[in-house]
Write a structure and sequence with these properties.
Length: about 650
Amino acid sequence: MPSLYTPFRIFTFGLVLCSSVDLHAQVDIVQYVSDDLFEVQPVIEVQPTKENEKVSEVTFFEEDIQKGLDMWKTGESDDALAHFKQLGRKYSTVPLLPYYAGSIYYQNGHLEEAREQFMEALAREPLFLEAKYMIGLLEIASKNLKEAKKIMDILVGVPAYASYGYHGHALVATEMGNFQKAVKMYKRCLETDSTFREAYISLAYLELVRFRNQRLARKIMDRAVEIDKTWEQAIVMRGIISLFTDKSTDQFEKDLNRLISLSPSNYHYLSLRGFLNIELGNYRLAVDDFRKAFNLEIDSVDVGEYKFSTRLERSKAVHDGLNYYYDHRVEMEKKSKEFMDRGICELIRDEKDKALIFFDSAIVQSDHSSSYFFKGVIYDMRWDGEPKAIDSYSDALERDSTNYHALSHRAQLYMKARRNNDALRDYSSFIRLRPRLKEGYKNRGILELTSQKYRRAYRDFSAALMIDSSDYDLYYDRAVATMYMKHYTASIKDLNIVVAAKPGDYESYYMLYLNYLNLKDSAEAIRHLDSASKYGKYRENYHLELLALSKRLKRDDLQINAYDRLVKYHWQSNKYLYSRAMFHYRRKEYNKAYEDFTDFVRKEKKDAKGYYYLGMTQIALDMSQEGEKSLAKARKYGFKEE
C-alpha cells in the first residue's frame, strides 16, 4: 500500500455478535463490551525524515504537515482542518493538503465538504488515486453504488492500488446485500496485499455473522494476529471469536493477558478480565482486577488505531469503597468476605438489588462499616435514594468513625441537599482525621466560596496548597476568592502561576482579564481576553466580548482575531462570516473580502446583501463582468440600496 495517509471506511460493529448471531460460549463475556467495540480511526503513515537531512523548505513543509497531523490525532480536528486549508492556499499545487482537509471533513460526517476537497486534490494531481478512493467511499456513503463501482474498477486496474479497489468493491457488495461477493472481494484484496488490515476485520465479521463460519472467522483473525503480534484490535476480536469457537475460555484468557501486557494502563482490559472472572465464579479474583483497574491513574480509551471500551464505568464512590474494603478486609469473617466479593461484583455488573442482598448477608456475618458504605453507594446511584444513602453512610460511620470515605461522600450529599452546615461539619471532621489530605480543605474551601465566605475559603485553599502545590485548580480557586476580596494583585499572582503551567487554561486568562478590568488597566485586560478567546475556542461569549472591547478600544488587530475565531469555531452561524467579510471590505482588503463573500453566498444562496457586496468587491478587484452578475443576483433576491 502507498505510504500516504490511508483512511478506510470499515464496519463499526459494537459487537453485535451477541444479538446478530445465535452463538453461545461457555461464558457470556461479550455482554460486558460496549456497543462501539471498534471505531477505526484514520491511520497516518508518513514517510520518516532522515535524521541528518539538511534543513530546507521541504523539511519545513514536512514539519507543517506533521503539525496538522498531530492536531488531528489529539482530537483538535477544527484546528487541523484550518491548518491544512491555510497550507493548501500557500502551496496551491500540492494535492496532499486538500486531501487531508477532505479526510477530516469525511471523518466528521461533512460529506459534501469532503467531496470538494478530494476533487481539488485530483484537480491538482489527476493521478493522486488516494483521493479517488476516498471519493469512491463518499459515493458508497451516498448510496451512489454505480459510481462507486466505476471508481473501484479504475483502482483495480492499477497494480499499486488494486487492494484499494477490491476493498471498495467489497464495501459496495456489502451495501447491496451481496455478501458472497463481498467475501470474494475481501479475499482478493488480501491476496493483493496481505497487510491490508481492514479487510481481515470485515472478512472475519462476514464469515462469523452472515455465514456462521465460526472456525473460518477464527482462522482469519489468527492470520491477522500473525502479521502483527502487537495489533490489539485483531487480538481483541480473535479473543471474542474464540469464545464462540472453542470449548473453553483458554484462548480468550491468553489474548486478554496479552492485551494487558501490551497496554498495562488500559483499565478496560483489566476490567474485562474482572468480568471474565465473574462469569467463571472467581469473585475474589474479579474484585482484585477491578480494584487494580480503578487505581490506574490513566484511563486509556484510545488504543492504537481504534477505540475499545467495556461497560465498566469509573466511579469514585466504588473506587473509595474498594480501597477501604481492602484496607479493613482482615477484620471481617471469611463468609462475610465472600458475600462482600459477590456484592461488589453484582454492583459493578449494575445488578444493584442483588448487590444489596449480598451486602445485607455480609452484615449478618460481620457488622462492618464497609458493607454499609457500599449500600450507601448503591442508594446514592438512585434518583430518589439520597436520604437512604445518607443514612447508610451514617451507619458506616457508627461502625467506624475513622471511615473518612464515608464522611466525604456524606458531605457531598449534604451539599447537594443544600445542608451546608452539615457538609461543613463533615469536611471539618474529615480534616481532623486526614489533615495531610488536601481533599478536605479543597472541598470545604469550595463550599465556603459558594457561601461567599471568601476569607475562610482563602485559608482552606492555602492549606491545601501547602499539601499539594502542584494542584493548579487550587491556585485558580484561591484567585477567585482573592478577587472577590478585591485583592486583585494577589489574584493575578495566582492566576499567572496557573497559566505558566497550563498555557491553554482559558478560564484563568478570563479571570486575569476581569482582574485587570477592576484595576482599570485596559491594555492588560484586552491582552488576556485575547488569550482567553484564543484558547477558549468554543466559548462564543469570549469572542463576542473581545469583539466588543476591541471595537471600543479601536484595536483592529484584535477585532480580526475575534472574527477569525467566530468563523472558525462557530461556523454553523454564517452571520460571523458575513461580518468578517464586511470588516475586510470597509478596510479595503478586497482579496480577503472576496474570499469571505464568495464563501458566504455559497452557503446562503439567496442572501441579497451578500451578493451585493460580493459584486462591489469584484468590481473593486477589476472583475467587472463577474461583479455585474453578482449585483444582478442581489437585485433578483430583493436588494435595495440605502
